[in-house]
Design a protein that fits this description.
Number of strands: 10
Shape: elongated
Number of domains: 4
Number of helices: 24
Oligomer: single chain
Helix content: 55-70%
Strand order of the largest sheet: 2-3-4-1-5
Distance between the termini: 123 Å
CATH superfamily of the largest domain: P-loop containing nucleotide triphosphate hydrolases
Length: about 500
């Protein structure tokens, strides 16, 4: 007799056997109990999460004569007939290979026939997103108003490819990724049932490698049983996965975390010479530093939660004790990001080695890059300020403030008229001089008086902001008349003699 793979042999045939989809199972059970059966359903989610299995269970449950807590009893005549692969009341169609409009029309032509055994005929269309646009259009009307005895269940992994007109006619159920803990429990049950020995951490590693897909995890478990010859070990699962030896991986991680570029490159060369895939290495390093962060925060609790063997845990604990959270987090981010870049590169080893060197210099490199970026932004801002004449503005503001204080001292000493005339004059302040521009004839005449000049000099000397600068008086140059000459000539022409 041909061997049946584990995921097929242990496919659930009742709702109780479905794991990780309690929200969907409960909803379908309630519909069955109340009799509010929909005419069209769409099941979406990642591969191996139970879409087709739930569809088959539901198809038998709606026809079961004596359901047990919503699940088909498996004992009545309907259940026995529908369990046969050649029954006519549960029609399965693979849209990946039957995606033409002719295939859908053939299905629609037969939909009018009444069920032969149960109450409903159930049409399960798998990978429905593969249907052509014309096939979807052909399905629309029937999907909206099927015969009373017909139920459609559409399954897809790519819900975004389904037309909105189809989605609006179906009850949508989203299948979630199954937690690692539940998958591990399922694998342990199966191993016990088939009498296979196993290490608990090996089972957890298999479940984790499934990535939330029960089918993927069970396929991997099947391979591990064959490879390990009935005794599934942690090291054996690592070999099947093509993952790195934990001790070698810890040694590489230690070199990277310590900034030891020479050691890291030697470890990488050694691992690559053994035929290790750099994409897997990048993923393993990201997971390793993720585990280090768990240990750093949870301690011994992380060992049980992640099912890490004692020898591996000791190595990770040393890394956790020696390096900061920021350091471990930075390295984890580098290799997590690298995994996506390697997918489209033909120079994977070079990219991996570059990432390892970057991780070695991680903190220093990031600080240098940040400092360089800040300097560049500052230089750009200063260039813009120079262009707008900003540099002269503070000097003018300082001069104005100093002169206001000087004018106040003049006023306090009884030179109120002089202070009033000179309060709003223009001025400039250099490192050695304080230049005052005399604005008009009246001010000039006041400064022709020696006592007034002496008063100004004395007030300047009493003003700390002046900083001992020499006061220089200059007449302000007026250019308004020169600017006005062209307009005067245009208006009066030869009638005005301008000298």
């Amino acid at each position: 007799m041909a061997y049946t793979s584990l995921y097929r042999r242990y496919r659930p045939d009742t709702f109780e056997g479905v794991i990780g989809q309690d929200h969907i199972v409960r909803t379908l059970k309630n519909q069955l109990a109340s009799g509010n059966i929909g005419h069209a359903y769409i099941f979406t989610g990642t591969r191996g999460t139970g879409k087709t299995s739930v569809a088959k269970i539901f198809a038998r449950a709606v026809n079961c004569m004596h359901p047990v807590d919503g699940s088909p009893c498996g004992e009545c005549d309907c259940c026995k007939e529908l369990a046969r692969p050649n029954n006519f009341d549960i029609i399965e169609m693979d849209a990946a290979s039957n995606n033409r409009v002719e295939d859908i029309r053939e299905l629609i032509d037969k939909i009018g026939f009444a069920p032969t055994v149960g109450k409903y005929k159930v049409y399960i269309v798998d990978e429905v997103h593969m249907l052509s646009a014309s096939a979807f259009n052909a399905l629309l009307k029937t999907l909206e108003e099927p015969p009373a005895h017909a139920i459609f269940i559409l399954a897809t992994t790519e819900i975004h490819k389904i037309p909105a007109t189809i989605l609006s006619r179906c009850l949508r159920f989203d299948f979630r990724l199954v937690p690692t803990k539940l998958i591990a429990e399922r694998i342990r049950f199966i191993f016990d049932d088939i009498q296979v020995k196993y290490q608990p951490e090996a089972v957890t590693l298999i479940a984790s490698a499934g990535g939330g897909s029960v089918r993927d995890a069970l396929s991997l478990a099947d391979m591990c049983v064959s490879y390990c010859d009935g005794n599934v070990t942690y090291d054996g699962v690592l070999e099947v996965l093509g993952a790195s030896d934990p001790e070698r991986l810890c040694a590489l991680a230690g070199c990277i975390a310590e900034g030891n570029v020479d050691g890291a490159l030697k470890e990488i060369a050694s691992l690559c010479d053994l035929g290790k895939n750099v994409s897997i290495l990048a993923n393993d390093l990201a997971n390793l530093f993720r585990n280090v962060l768990y240990i750093k925060h949870l301690g011994e609790e992380a060992k049980e939660m992640l099912s890490i063997p004692d020898g591996v845990y000791d190595g990770l604990k040393q890394l956790a004790d020696k390096h900061s959270v920021q350091r471990c987090l930075g390295i984890m981010k580098i290799f997590s990001k690298l995994e996506g870049e390697l997918r489209y590169s033909s120079q994977r080893r070079i990219l991996f080695e570059a990432a390892a060197v970057q991780a070695c210099y991680g903190d220093e490199a990031s600080r240098t890059d940040e400092l360089a970026a800040r300097v560049a932004r500052l230089e750009k801002a200063m260039a813009a300020l120079r262009k707008s004449g900003f540099e002269r503005t503070p000097a003018i503001m300082d001069a104005k403030q100093a002169w206001i204080h000087t004018a106040s001292r003049l006023n306090a000493k009884g030179y109120s008229l002089l202070a009033s005339c000179l309060r709003d004059v223009k001025m400039e302040m250099t490192e050695t001089e304080f230049v005052i521009y005399i604005p008009d004839v009246a001010s000039k005449k006041m400064l022709d008086v020696k006592s007034n000049v002496d008063a100004v000099m004395e007030a300047v000397a009493d003003t700390p902001e002046m900083g001992g600068r020499t006061v220089v008086f200059k007449e302000e140059t007026h250019v308004a008349s020169d600017v006005a000459l062209p307009f005067v000539r245009d208006m009066f022409g030869k009638y005005v003699d301008i000298k």
